[in-house]
């Protein structure tokens, strides 16, 4: 693959318009590693040729395949640990008190390979075991991602030993997974049934999502420009119920929206509450 400066710049512009991701100027290696195989299969030699092909055949499926390849990421179970402890010890009890007769709704935005929404579902189960009868109306977890390939994988709930080894304890593996062949496991039905997977672009309208008590948008905003990041945070605010909570990644911070969110120190970690 040829990644000349002009071709790479054209691709950067295309990708940001398509899904909001802002590629750094030194990320040619990432593009090459993600797209080499696809471009070879399509008989495309340069990034400029790739962008031109997408523009002349917008409905040919190539655009979706490219975005899919550039947004696919593996993640961890119970990443950073503290968000899931804060969820169980602080946020869920508060949400139940605020809406005792309503089903709680949680959004896992950019859910990638599914570890986050399934970790949330396991956390809900652990909360219910310790607080019998408190979640009378149940919990719905809406998990969204741009990648159709990842969503299809998520829906199966199947993971290999490499994925299982990324942060899942032996106790949780035994309690929440069933073995499925050598070196493979599948999420148990009660955990899967709480999660609804949907295809969604964070740049699109949020109207169809409805309102949420809790939003997890972790380790996503780092890929966007400051302008796009602020726009997404404003849109997320529109989906949160008053007093609802937003969880960001450990290296992410919410700056410049004091009229919309209040920072909550949790020791460890910081979350944000919608005003």
From TrEMBL:
Top-rank taxon of the source lineage equals Bacteria
Q: Which residues form the CheR-type methyltransferase domain?
A: 1-275
Q: Explain the purpose of this protein.
A: Methylation of the membrane-bound methyl-accepting chemotaxis proteins (MCP) to form gamma-glutamyl methyl ester residues in MCP.
Q: Which InterPro entries match?
A: Bact_Chemotaxis_MeTrfase, Chemotaxis_MeTrfase_CheR, CheR_C, CheR_MeTrfase, CheR_N, CheR_N_sf, SAM-dependent_MTases_sf
Coiled coil residues, start to end: none
Residue ranges annotated as transmembrane are none
SMART domains on file: MeTrc
Q: What is a single Pfam family found in this protein's UniProt entry?
A: CheR
Q: Which reaction does it catalyse?
A: L-glutamyl-[protein] + S-adenosyl-L-methionine = [protein]-L-glutamate 5-O-methyl ester + S-adenosyl-L-homocysteine
Q: Which PROSITE patterns match?
A: CHER
- Keywords attached to this entry: Methyltransferase, S-adenosyl-L-methionine, Transferase
The UniProt gene name for this protein comes to cheR
Question: SUPFAM superfamilies attached here?
Answer: Chemotaxis receptor methyltransferase CheR, N-terminal domain, S-adenosyl-L-methionine-dependent methyltransferases
**EC number in record:** 2.1.1.80
UniProt key word Methyltransferase: yes
Signal peptide start and end residues: none
Protein name listed in UniProt: Chemotaxis protein methyltransferase
Q: Known CDD domains for this protein?
A: AdoMet_MTases (cd02440)
């Amino acid at each position: 693959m040829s990644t000349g400066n002009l071709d790479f710049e054209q691709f950067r512009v295309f990708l940001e318009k398509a899904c909001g991701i802002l590629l750094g100027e030194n990320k040619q290696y990432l593009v090459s590693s993600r797209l080499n195989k696809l471009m070879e299969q399509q008989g495309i030699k340069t990034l400029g040729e790739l962008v031109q092909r997408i523009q002349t055949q917008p409905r040919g499926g190539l655009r979706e395949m490219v975005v899919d390849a550039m947004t696919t990421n593996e993640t961890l179970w119970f990443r950073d640990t503290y968000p899931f402890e804060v969820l169980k010890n602080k946020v869920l009890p508060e949400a139940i008190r605020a809406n005792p007769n309503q089903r709680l709704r949680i959004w896992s935005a950019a859910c990638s390979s599914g570890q986050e929404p399934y970790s949330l579902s396991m956390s809900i189960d652990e909360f219910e075991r310790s607080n019998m009868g408190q979640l009378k109306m149940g919990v719905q977890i809406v998990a969204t991602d741009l990648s159709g390939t990842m969503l299809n994988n998520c829906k199966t709930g199947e993971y290999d030993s490499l994925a299982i080894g990324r942060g899942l304890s032996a106790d949780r593996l035994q309690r929440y997974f069933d073995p499925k062949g050598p070196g493979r496991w599948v999420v148990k039905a009660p955990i899967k049934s709480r999660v609804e997977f949907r295809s969604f672009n964070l740049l699109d309208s949020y109207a169809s999502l409805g309102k949420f008590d809790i939003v997890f948008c972790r380790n996503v905003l780092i890929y966007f420009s400051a302008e796009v990041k602020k726009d997404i945070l404003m849109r997320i605010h529109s989906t949160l119920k008053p007093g609802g909570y937003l969880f960001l990644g450990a290296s992410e911070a919410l700056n410049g929206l004091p009229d919309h969110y209040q920072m909550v120190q949790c020791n460890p970690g910081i979350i944000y509450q919608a005003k």
